[in-house]
Amino acid sequence: MDRFFADDPQLIDALLAWSRRRILDGQDPSTRAEPASHLTEAMGVTITPAGLGGAAAMARFTDVVIPATRAINHPMNLAYVPNAATSAATAFDAAVSAACVFAGAWDGGAGAIHAENQALAWLAELVGYPADAGGTFTQGGTIGNLSALVAARHRAIERRRDQGLAEPWRWRFAATGDAHSSIRSAARVMGVEVLDVPGDERGRMTGVALQAALDAHGDDDVFAVVATAGTTNAGMVDELDAIATVAGRHDLWLHVDGAFGLAARAAPSTRRLFDGIERSDSFVVDPHKWLYAPYDCCALVYRDPREAAAAHSQHASYLDQLDRSAWNPTDYAVQLSRRARGLPFWFSLATYGTERYSAAIERSLDTARQVADHIRASRHLELVVEPQLSVLLFRRAGWSAERLQHWSDAQAVAGTILCIPTKWAGEPVLRLCFVSPDTRADEVTALLDTMG
Ligand SMILES: *Cc1c(COP(=O)(O)O)cnc(C)c1O
Known about the structure:
Number of helices: 15
Shape: globular
Order of helices and strands: HHHHHEHEHEHEHEEHEHHHEEHEEH
Bound molecules: pyridoxal-5'-phosphate
Radius of gyration: 23 Å
Largest sheet: 7 strands, mixed
Structural class: alpha/beta
């Protein structure tokens, strides 16, 4: 076909060949962010009236853009929460782009949405939700958490209205200080306050602390509780079952933020830590973190999706044609147009099977335990808190914050290990987060020994 924007089959082949190499061979682990001034020089002017042409534009991508990005899915990247997407999921993501599916509504994306829903159903079953639970995939945990809390507030407003009661001057939800930063961001976006629940010595919310906070403040303006299933900083799981009891007593929506940690529900050794989550109203988990899918992908699931649709459905004359009896993902989050971002996760699950997934998560937990044992046995290193999942926080006795930073930077430059400091109880400490089944404990411990 003679298209206005000329097709260049050679360019497409080159891009697919580059993608194939990147997927199979990975990326140099020593690549990292460059200052914008370097990039300005290296890139030159790329947006021009006549265009550079595909070959020149691609050369900027391979030679300038990619070398200034982090190899986020490298098995020795143990900073923040890294990514460990399967090659099947990543290659499939390219196919999803090629298919150009509008997955906001059943009307445009039925097949894709059906497949996504099968993946969501596996997650719902994993936590023990009823069969009619459901939701959608959003960009990340940040939007997933916001969407769940908007649905929660909507339900509280409706219940108030049904009882003939006015809304409080300002709504609140309960959360600990160790809840993810996106939780406070959601509060700001929504114009609500956070009722602070003090965490225990490991930063976890307990049922007793939640009850005490509600007793002290009252529950009149509180619409939800946010529990964390795997804190980002330390991998700690709140007391979900006890929290669910308190939430039920006060008629509060319980949202579980499992963006990082909830994947460990699929691993036999950690499964029980999440007991009680089946009593929650909604949860999120990011397949782009510990469920081996590429960016960006958050699964958001509601126990009763009708409550979410009541809050999120968009209506307009140009949307009147949508079949409202069908499953429209736009009804379940702050989103309308969307790519089928859950499809690579579905494809990976369908390809490898849930047993392989469970085994992979168990493997990374085991790697974390081996490294934790090494730290316990080491004379110069010390765990600062007993881990629950696959995050380790540890100190190097006698080293200042600068010395830790220096060691971390030197490893990053050499491309050996990405291990970035954080703080625990105000103290600068080192942190490792394991999600890849391909990370080797002996390689990690050998590098930790260089701090000796
Ligand atoms: C990563 C994370 C988030 C935010 O998710 P994004 O996908 O980065 O938006 C929220 N909560 C927890 C517990 C997280 O670890």
